[in-house]
Amino acid sequence: MLINMSDSGKLTEFGYVMDLLAKGKVTIKNIERELICPACKELFTHPLILPCQHSICHKCVKELLLLTLDDSFNDVASESSCQSSPRLRVQSPSMDKIDRINRAGMINYSGWKRSSLTPRTTTFPCPGCEHDIDLGERGINGLFRNFTLETIVERYRQAARAATAIMCDLCKPPPQESTKSCMDCSASYCNECFKIYHPWGTVKAQHEYVGPTTNFRPKILMCPEHEMERVNMYCELCRRPVCHLCKLGGNHSNHRVTTISSAYKTLKEKLSKDIDYLIGKEGQVRSQISELNLLMKETECNGERAKEEAASHFNKLFEVLEEKKSSIIKAIDVSKKLRLDKFQTQMEEYQGLLENNGLVGYAQEVLKETDQSCFVQTAKQLHLRIQKATESLKTFRPAAQTSFEDYVVDASKQEELLGELAFFSNGVDIPEINEEQSKIYNKALISWHHPEKKNKADSYILEYRKISREEEMLTWSETEVYGTSKVISDLESNSSYAFRVRGYKGSVCSPCSREVILHTPPAPVFSFLFDEKCGYNNEHLLLNLKRDRVDSRAGFSLLLAAERVQVGCYTSLDYIIGDTGITKGKHFWALRVEPYSYMVKVGVASNDKLQEWLHNPRDISSPRYEQDSGHDSGSEDTCFDSAQPFTLVTIGMKKFFVPKSPTSSSEPENRVLPMPTCIGIFLDYDKGKVGFYDADHMKCLYERQVDCSGTMYPAFALMGSGGIQLEETITAKYLEYQNDM
């Protein structure tokens, strides 16, 4: 990094690296691996230093932010409408404004207010370490440019295209080859032009010049937080240069800092010492490289030998299977031939019973005999045969069985054993996916453990693939994990995925775990919070600070005034809605109802219907007259065929009550289901359809038409004690750099 804090304008770290290059201690062509961006896999272009100390191209940072921008806008809640009415979902901003992500850590367009619903569009995974990186309030502007790396890349480019000269920028056509470049003018000159534009005795004669280059950079490093201030300190906690304003009242006010010169001296001494140590160990490194070459050759030979042994084992299995196959097929053929022979004999006997054929034809000829003694001699035996044939007609029985049930091969155990066929595990236990802790919502969270808890692995490979309905075998996707859980993104909606994991301990691999199949929601997850301003009754309902949980304390005021209650009465339903409306598309959200809840209603309702409910409260009214109350008042029977602007289902006393519909049973006991642990709601606005799901298994419990002519909102109602918790979206944990410092 170029840091100039003195009047002499000397190079610091860059100068030291360039000295090494000039002295021939580093061959520029041998360091290409260090000059490749981990995102685009090409040479760095304007590299930026991330908080995790990895470098990445400027354009790659913008592309990674844009990849997360679409998902972020889907979760944005608008606050543009008045606070007394439900808010509408706003459309995504036009693409011509996306460049604003360079200037802010939050998308902050006109009319938008930053709130808990505003997406953090400056978070993305680092391609180098795969940890989530939060760029903070200033976004890309808060990152330093890695000028040292940028200059080394430029030198590498020049070494790669040594035959291509850099031409003078000031020459008249045709331009001459440049001999030097001015860092102050950001231009390249030939000898003649340099003398003309940098005459002796002028200020320009004092400009800094280097060899021909196309990489120009500022001589003074400015603070990204305070753009008019140059950096003059180094924060030891954040490991980055800062200015005096950052220390006085900025983000580094409580951090330990040192002067740039002191940091330069310390880091240069450490770097020099480390480089000298590595250079001093060159013989050891070369010896280890030779050893690695031998190990690679040995691995190649051992790998081929292992392949041959594995192929030999499978060939033996094939031989056993072929032998078994031949013997079984032969036995089936013998049985088939024997049965067909019996059927053929029986068929010939029956054909003889036909007129002029066989036995009947012979008997007809015997009847023509006129000699009595000869007739009697022959007819006796013939009569017995005729009687036997007559009896067989009365009790027809096939001579053999047509079924081959006794010859069905049961290979289920063998298939299970073959499915478990794997490498011999040398002390690495097979991991097992924890189905209770694994779940799919907006993303997939997969957790696993070792049941034996003896020989745990050092790292894991999590594999997953989509299960195609056409039974097409899709390839497995793999991701390496160093913990026992992983968040998987980019899964398709309304799909089933198979997951499995295997462990690694050094070079030893365990067999794969048993596959676990999870189902994604039928639509993208819809993010919202409870609305605390529209219709919220804080006397009966208690909303937490995060606005993702509501508890009912209805009836408390009634108990305080119980001595005045002399007749039976009903408490009213207390409504609360989501703070974001839906005007198009498919959406899914999930929630959990506390098991102790007396009566809870969940579903969707239009803006107009909500206004009717919220502005016409009934404190002492029977729920029997509420069409959506869940009571069997009879009013539902007349209207369930027509789509209404709302649909609510009743949940309470650990039960899920299926409303009456043409497809549901009229018997009450058949419309009562056990309450799912997690309840999902799927709204297809365009088709006017709402469904209620067991979200743990993505099984639809009830579905019906709903009138979506207006803006629809998630709607909830509580009576008596109860609680509703919105399902928390799955997010990857951010990297905490303090542990590494």
Automatic annotation (TrEMBL):
<keyword id="KW-0206">Cytoskeleton</keyword>
<dbReference type="InterPro" id="IPR047065">
    <property type="entry name" value="TRIM36_Bbox2_Zfn"/>
</dbReference>
<dbReference type="Pfam" id="PF00643">
    <property type="entry name" value="zf-B_box"/>
</dbReference>
<feature type="domain" description="Fibronectin type-III">
    <location>
        <begin position="427"/>
        <end position="523"/>
    </location>
</feature>
<dbReference type="InterPro" id="IPR050617">
    <property type="entry name" value="E3_ligase_FN3/SPRY"/>
</dbReference>
<feature type="domain" description="COS">
    <location>
        <begin position="367"/>
        <end position="424"/>
    </location>
</feature>
<dbReference type="InterPro" id="IPR017903">
    <property type="entry name" value="COS_domain"/>
</dbReference>
<dbReference type="InterPro" id="IPR003879">
    <property type="entry name" value="Butyrophylin_SPRY"/>
</dbReference>
<feature type="domain" description="B30.2/SPRY">
    <location>
        <begin position="508"/>
        <end position="735"/>
    </location>
</feature>
<dbReference type="InterPro" id="IPR013083">
    <property type="entry name" value="Znf_RING/FYVE/PHD"/>
</dbReference>
<dbReference type="Pfam" id="PF13445">
    <property type="entry name" value="zf-RING_UBOX"/>
</dbReference>
<protein>
    <submittedName>
        <fullName>Tripartite motif containing 36</fullName>
    </submittedName>
</protein>
<keyword id="KW-0479">Metal-binding</keyword>
<dbReference type="InterPro" id="IPR047066">
    <property type="entry name" value="TRIM36_Bbox1_Zfn"/>
</dbReference>
<dbReference type="InterPro" id="IPR027726">
    <property type="entry name" value="Trim36_HC-RING"/>
</dbReference>
<keyword id="KW-0677">Repeat</keyword>
<dbReference type="InterPro" id="IPR017907">
    <property type="entry name" value="Znf_RING_CS"/>
</dbReference>
<dbReference type="InterPro" id="IPR027370">
    <property type="entry name" value="Znf-RING_euk"/>
</dbReference>
<dbReference type="InterPro" id="IPR040859">
    <property type="entry name" value="Midline-1_COS"/>
</dbReference>
<feature type="domain" description="B box-type">
    <location>
        <begin position="218"/>
        <end position="260"/>
    </location>
</feature>
<dbReference type="InterPro" id="IPR043136">
    <property type="entry name" value="B30.2/SPRY_sf"/>
</dbReference>
<dbReference type="GO" id="GO:0005856">
    <property type="term" value="C:cytoskeleton"/>
</dbReference>
<feature type="domain" description="RING-type">
    <location>
        <begin position="37"/>
        <end position="82"/>
    </location>
</feature>
<dbReference type="GO" id="GO:0001669">
    <property type="term" value="C:acrosomal vesicle"/>
</dbReference>
<dbReference type="GO" id="GO:0007051">
    <property type="term" value="P:spindle organization"/>
</dbReference>
<comment type="similarity">
    <text>Belongs to the TRIM/RBCC family.</text>
</comment>
<dbReference type="GO" id="GO:0008270">
    <property type="term" value="F:zinc ion binding"/>
</dbReference>
<dbReference type="InterPro" id="IPR013783">
    <property type="entry name" value="Ig-like_fold"/>
</dbReference>
<dbReference type="Pfam" id="PF18568">
    <property type="entry name" value="COS"/>
</dbReference>
<dbReference type="InterPro" id="IPR036116">
    <property type="entry name" value="FN3_sf"/>
</dbReference>
<dbReference type="InterPro" id="IPR001870">
    <property type="entry name" value="B30.2/SPRY"/>
</dbReference>
<keyword id="KW-0863">Zinc-finger</keyword>
<dbReference type="InterPro" id="IPR013320">
    <property type="entry name" value="ConA-like_dom_sf"/>
</dbReference>
<keyword id="KW-0175">Coiled coil</keyword>
<keyword id="KW-0862">Zinc</keyword>
<dbReference type="InterPro" id="IPR000315">
    <property type="entry name" value="Znf_B-box"/>
</dbReference>
<keyword id="KW-0833">Ubl conjugation pathway</keyword>
<dbReference type="InterPro" id="IPR035727">
    <property type="entry name" value="SPRY/PRY_TRIM36"/>
</dbReference>
<keyword id="KW-0963">Cytoplasm</keyword>
<dbReference type="InterPro" id="IPR003961">
    <property type="entry name" value="FN3_dom"/>
</dbReference>
<dbReference type="InterPro" id="IPR001841">
    <property type="entry name" value="Znf_RING"/>
</dbReference>
<dbReference type="GO" id="GO:0007340">
    <property type="term" value="P:acrosome reaction"/>
</dbReference>
